[in-house]
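A student in our group prepared the protein record below, which I am reviewing. Here is the record exactly as it was handed to me.
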Amino acid sequence: MKTGINILPSSRIDKDSWDLCVRKNANGLIYSSAVYLDTMSANWHGVVIDDYAAVMALPWKKKFGIRYGYTPPFMQQLGLIGNIGLNDLSEIIHSIHRFISFADIHFNFSNAAVQQLTPVVTRTNLILDLSVGYDHLYKKYSSDLKMNIKKATNGSLIYYESNIEQGIAFYISHYQERMPHILKCDYEHFSELCYLLQKNENCFVRAARNQTGDILAIAVFLFDGKRIYNMMNTTMQKGRAEEANHFLLDKVIQEFAGRPLLFDFEGSDLPGVREFYEKFGAANQPYFHYHYNGLPWLLRLLKR
């Protein structure tokens, strides 16, 4: 049993110790870094176990004076970081219940033990191990993906480094209407985050254009030394006809292949998106959505 489980406001957290825990553990994803949480969350507390041996972020808001847990935009999975046993995990969940009465929590891929303690919904996240090298990766591509890449290459598309402003602007213009729950301020916060991360080369943008200079596909990626995260991937209508996104992602994979990294496609439970990513040979590394409602019964009726 862990000797100490504390839930601290972000202002009282030792951010250096927190980030060290995130960096040194394989299940420490970029979403749990202090800069990510500070920039993207309205408020957050952190579960700190045994002097930062393990940590877990708890973003929260208030409504009618009641604190509730939520998942901020562009923050796929948080959960417990570090090595935690089943009994410890159970105690941590009970501590969270005392802190927040209502929440949607996305436990990360390594927190599969949560399934033994409470009902959860398994979510899809597809990843690709880049360490094996490009030749090995290409052999696992589907036949039609190879054909589409060849088509795009024969069309003389150009792969190049673009910028954050352009990558986010194209994403907003193409997808904002489909995602009304993501507000203007969320995009502004994400833009701020990208510029902060870019200072340490933890954010980059790649694009594909044709010979006349038209951008056909563009993507914003985050990087933490363990993974490349496919955060905003936009394909223009003209780019679809020229297989520009097949070309773009293949070029990114080529650029980083052979390094000890995972390429994180960031989803998806949408069948069409999942099938597209699987064409690259990506494997599912699921994470776990936990919803609970411990509100007083009258409020529970209003907030399901």
